[in-house]
Amino acid sequence: MFRYIVRRLLQMVLTFFGATFMLFALVFANQKDPIQALVGERPVSESQRIALTERYHLDEGFFMQYWYYMKGLFTGDFGTSMTGRKNWEMMADAWPVTLRLALIAIVIAATFSVTMGVYSALKRGGVFDNVSLFITLVLLAMPIVVIAPLFQLIFGIELGWFPPTATRDATVWQLLLPAIVLACIVIAPEMRVTRTAVVENLRADYVRTARAKGLTRTRVIWVHVLRNSLIPVVTLIGVDLGGLMAGAIVTEHVFNIPGVGFNLARAIKTEDGPLVVGFVSILVILFLFINLLVDLLYAALDPRIRYE
Amino acid sequence: MDVLPGIDPRAPLLEVSDLHVEFRTQYGVAKAINGANFWLSAGETLAILGESGCGKSVTAQAIMGILDTPPGYVTQGQIKYRGVDLLKLSENERRKVRANRIAMIFQDALSALNPVYTVGFQLGEVFRKHRGMSRSAAKQRAIELLDQVKIPAARTRVDDYPHQFSGGMRQRVMIAMALALDPEVLIADEPTTALDVTVQAQIMGLLADLQRERNMGLILITHDMGVVADVADRISVMYAGRVVEEAPVYDIYSRPAHPYTRALLESIPRLDMKGQQLSVIRGLPPVLTDVPKGCAFNPRCAYARDACRQDPAPPVYQVSQQPHRTARCHFFREVIGE
Ligand SMILES: Nc1ncnc2c1ncn2[C@@H]1O[C@H](COP(=O)(O)OP(=O)(O)OP(=O)(O)O)[C@@H](O)[C@H]1O
Ligand code: SF4
Ligand SMILES: [Mg+2]
């Protein structure tokens, strides 16, 4: 197990460099005139141009820029945004609210999809199963750019059940509606996978043994069947994190939450290369660590993997 | 242990009469069991024998009350344990009969054990849920049980997962689990089919020892006539969901009364028949959604004549009183006489 973790960590280092390098290439290949983009419509004086060029190493080659950036990153300097603010400052503002949002969304998605998936599987072919199949299909067909404003309009503004926007110090209550929107992207596949896994496991021989032992139906399902069925679901939740991050950009924009997605969207629009790279580097690291966590959880759930 | 209402210690240990089970599938109703009858006494081994698909496992599941419902339903008959008809009990009472009074082991111990829990957990669960023991007390009992089924280093192996055991050791774990609460009846559904020949003999030996120690009634389901001869007291031969012949082991081997039993016996390879053509029963078992009229065996039977192709199916004929033998063949006298 220990060797496995070490191997995974080494892989993560490689992935990190590969991913950030590609990101860097994409961001800087796209830049036409970052200095002009930075100051907007106003004309830029030659001295300003020189100062900015020096500060961001704009005159040096792409590889050098990547080198400077990495050096900064590993000495704790996340660089400076084109707006002049320190990157880490902006990130310290943005990350907490996004993490909270994502966490609430994952909890909502996991709770809903697992309970409803199990229930659907137990009552397969019934009304609940069919209705939930229909709803998940609708959810699957609706992109987040539709769901987010729609939910905001219906539940936030028209019905007024939830606050329609959130602030930097948003409470759980303020984040509930955007988290539900975010959860909607992953609930459908997670629920279907849960349902399929439970249906499959209900037919397994070990279920017959558990019943032959005189266990109650509740115990057979929630202890024996569920534990086995969760293995594919956990993997999926790990994979879904990427989708969740992408969804956060739209959701934070719609609900005006000053989180990572919100800042990232703005940084891309203003061609703020250092800020984009700063946010995404952390995103990559986070993503890699969560994937490792999911793999460890997977091994914890399935001893056949743990002992390989 | 909870006391079952109406239990009579002098009544037969287990008595199955006129059992009918059907599977209601989208392709039609499959009549898997069409009137099965047999009984079992304490300390006795009854072998249930028959080709694949004849309903042996379904019968066992019906006795345990673990049929997949839907699609499987018991539509008729009685399963009496010490005089109590199990089919009339509530689900909760029925559940307590399992493991406490009647236990079962399965063919493939790898898939029959839950892959994600240790064997200690799965064994201990029986004590925790039926006897209300603590986790540590249950684990202690699990170790004792593993010792009893002769698993070496039980104290350390108790924390292992099923996939870490060999096939024979896994079946020992299953046996330990089934015997945890000292049941009076053990149903073993092809307990050795998935194992090598040498391991098969060890497991059968272990089962026989444990049965003798505990004076337990054992129902041994198999399609291997060779295994049966060594361990069984009586045999019930099943065909298309019915017991077509029932007799003590010696009698059935020396003078079968049903053409199907006869054909089965002729299909056992024997040393003294080396080099000869092995006789295999011609034709296929019937499709359960479309069982032949009259005697279900008639399309494959060498003795068949017109009477066999008319409903009703042959009744349970008494072949002899002492020993008690029955057969469901109109012409059993002719068959046995040869
Ligand atoms: N869950 C089920 N759904 C539908 N049909 C079933 C189900 N379980 C069993 N059957 C049917 O009942 C019949 C008897 O099956 P059973 O498993 O009892 O056979 P068996 O005698 O144990 O055979 P084998 O030696 O292969 O184990 C089979 O024809 C099978 O198709
Ligand atoms: S009743 Fe007829 S068909 Fe059936 S086993 Fe006897 S002789 Fe054969
Ligand atoms: Mg079977």
From TrEMBL, chain A:
PROSITE patterns reported for this sequence: ABC_TM1
Any one of the GO BP annotations: transmembrane transport
Positions of transmembrane segments: 97-119, 131-151, 171-188, 229-255, 275-301
Origin superkingdom: Bacteria
Similarity remark: Belongs to the binding-protein-dependent transport system permease family.
Localization terms from the record: Cell membrane
Membrane topology, record value: Multi-pass membrane protein
Protein name (Swiss-Prot/TrEMBL): Oligopeptide transport system permease protein
Keywords: Cell membrane, Membrane, Transmembrane, Transmembrane helix, Transport
GO CC annotation: plasma membrane
InterPro entries given in the database record: BPD_transp_1_N, MetI-like, MetI-like_sf
Domain ABC transmembrane type-1: 95-298
From TrEMBL, chain B:
Localization (cell): Cell membrane
Presence of the UniProt keyword Cell membrane in the record: yes
SMART domains: AAA
Cellular component aspect of the GO annotation: plasma membrane
NCBIfam families: oligo_HPY
Matches recorded under InterPro entries: AAA+_ATPase, ABC_Ni/Peptide_Import, ABC_transporter-like_ATP-bd, ABC_transporter-like_CS, Oligopep_ABC_C, P-loop_NTPase
Highest taxon of the lineage: Bacteria
Protein name per UniProt: Oligopeptide transport system ATP-binding protein
Keywords from the UniProt entry: ATP-binding, Cell membrane, Membrane, Nucleotide-binding, Transport
Originating organism: Actinoplanes regularis
Membrane topology field: Peripheral membrane protein
SUPFAM superfamilies referenced in this protein's UniProt entry, alphabetically: P-loop containing nucleoside triphosphate hydrolases
Start and end residues of each ABC transporter domain: 14-265
